[in-house]
Amino acid sequence: MTGKCLLAGAIVVAVVVVLAALAAFTGVYDVAADAPHTTLMKSVIAFVRERSIDVRANAIHVPPLDPPQMISEGAGHYDEMCTGCHLAPGMKENEMRPGMNPKPPVLARVHAGSPAEQFWIVKHGIKMSGMPAWGPTHTDTEIWDIVAFLQKLPSLAPSQYRALVAQASGHHQHESSGMDMPHRH
């Protein structure tokens, strides 16, 4: 009985692989950004993304995230790097977001989520989503500043957001290939 189950399982896997290869070869799946994914594909992508992030973020040690300077520095980084896709409190829809698939969440309107998961996402990005990896150009300290800010973002009014951005230092150093590159907010 076990041999028959293994054979049946192998056949199912082989059929799925052949169908996936056939779909890829024929171009039947539309990869256009303005063509929504099927419900099944959305579910598969979401499951793979969430499991991947959960597994990798599990070992991340979260530092204290409440120092005011850390939050304001994170606000400065967010204002410069993230608002084009994720908007800011009080910010209206822009021309870029409607053409993105998947459409990035408006982070001011969603639960902040796990700091470890946010750190992993900001540092490593997410393939085929438009979310870049900021780790190659930002230190872990800068990324934790962003995470500290993200923990506060959903509760901020537009005026509070602008005040935090104004408190940011106005510049930061990027590390890339051992070279420091100044970058203005």
Describe this structure in words.
The chain is mostly helical. It contains seven helices and two strands; from the N terminus they run H-H-H-H-H-H-H-E-E. The protein has a two-stranded antiparallel ribbon with strand order 1-2. Strand 1 and strand 2 (about 180-185) form a beta hairpin. It is elongated. The model is unreliable at about 175-185 (pLDDT under 50).
Structure summary:
The protein has helices at 2-26, 39-57, 68-81, 83-86, 115-124, 140-152, 158-167; strands at residues 171-176, 179-184.
Q: What is the number of helical segments per DSSP (H or I, 4+ residues)?
A: 7
Q: Got a strand count?
A: 2
Helix content: 40-55%
SSE order, as H and E?
Answer: HHHHHHHEE
Weakly predicted, low-confidence segments: 173-185
Head-to-tail CA distance between termini: 66 Å
Structural class: mainly alpha
Q: What share of residues are in beta strands? A: 5-15%
**Quick check: average pLDDT?**
90
Question: Main β-sheet, in a few words?
Answer: 2 strands, antiparallel
- Cα shape: elongated
List keywords for this structure.
mainly alpha, 185 residues, 7 helices, two-stranded antiparallel sheet, elongated, 51% helix
Write the SSE topology.
Blueprint: H1 2-26, H2 39-57, H3 68-81, H4 83-86, H5 115-124, H6 140-152, H7 158-167, E1 171-176, E2 179-184
Antiparallel strand pairs: 1-2
Helix pairs in contact: 2-5, 3-6, 3-7, 5-6
